[in-house]
């Protein structure tokens, strides 16, 4: 399984490159812009994928050492999370939004499972012990917001709710996102990689919505900043309590 983790970690940037080359159809950004929502993030935010891919590959190489513990306990969910992340990109480009939504939620669940196991484990010895507890929580942190951005796009794409007055249901969905972020931040004991990815995404939502012309976009922008501040305060409090 440890070799599968490496191969699947390498598959993610390979598929991302093909997606940006329109191998599967319109790139993910183009598809997203077809369905504007109040939960959309500024385009620069997605550059975090470059860091996520690099760190996931570094983690995959690090875990090749069969003697490292508790890495064996997380190889399967990590590999599953990597595989699903790679699969989401072409599926979303193909416009299969329900399937893409299922895939991204499953990817999040797998990587969160792996992150919990790593954060709960004793500190790793060796030259780069941070590789045990940084890459996967960073990936999970970004997906913790992305799953709700993707959910909002499904609502708009299939007109499941009012797409002309989106503020009500968008705030409700964003409230669920905020609750999930706070619960997971507490479970991961304020892991800074998870928190940083979440705040990065929340600030990007605020930036996007401050410049958007949709009804209610300014309200959503301020809501995103408030949630980012609360998550940061919670993480600081958790870290101080641990120390």
TrEMBL record:
InterPro entries: TspO/MBR-related_sf (IPR038330). Keywords: Membrane, Transmembrane, Transmembrane helix. It comes from the Bacteria. The chain crosses the membrane at residues 42-62, 74-91, 97-119, 166-184, 191-207, 219-240. This is TspO/MBR related protein. It comes from Tahibacter harae.
């Amino acid at each position: 399984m440890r070799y599968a983790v490496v191969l699947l970690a390498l598959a993610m940037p390979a598929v991302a490159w093909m997606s940006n080359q329109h191998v599967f159809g319109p790139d993910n950004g183009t598809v997203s812009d077809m369905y504007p929502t109040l939960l959309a993030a500024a385009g620069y935010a997605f550059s975090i994928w470059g860091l996520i891919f690099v760190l996931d590959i570094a983690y995959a190489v690090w875990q090749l050492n069969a003697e490292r513990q508790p890495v064996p306990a997380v190889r399967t969910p990590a590999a599953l999370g990597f595989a699903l992340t790679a699969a989401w990109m072409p599926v979303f480009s193909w416009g299969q939004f329900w399937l893409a939504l299922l895939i991204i939620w499953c990817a999040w669940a797998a990587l969160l499972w792996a992150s919990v196991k790593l954060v709960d484990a004793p500190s790793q010895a060796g030259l780069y012990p941070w590789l045990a507890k940084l890459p996967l929580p960073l990936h999970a942190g970004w997906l913790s917001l992305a799953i709700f951005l993707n959910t909002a796009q499904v609502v708009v794409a299939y007109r499941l709710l009012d797409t002309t007055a989106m503020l009500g249901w968008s705030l409700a969905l964003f409230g669920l996102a905020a609750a999930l972020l706070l619960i997971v931040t507490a479970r991961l004991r304020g892991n800074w990689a998870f928190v940083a990815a979440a705040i990065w995404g929340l600030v990007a939502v605020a930036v996007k919505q401050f410049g958007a012309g949709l009804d209610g976009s300014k309200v959503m922008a301020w809501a995103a900043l408030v949630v980012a501040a609360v998550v940061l305060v919670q993480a600081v409090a958790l870290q101080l309590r641990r120390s």
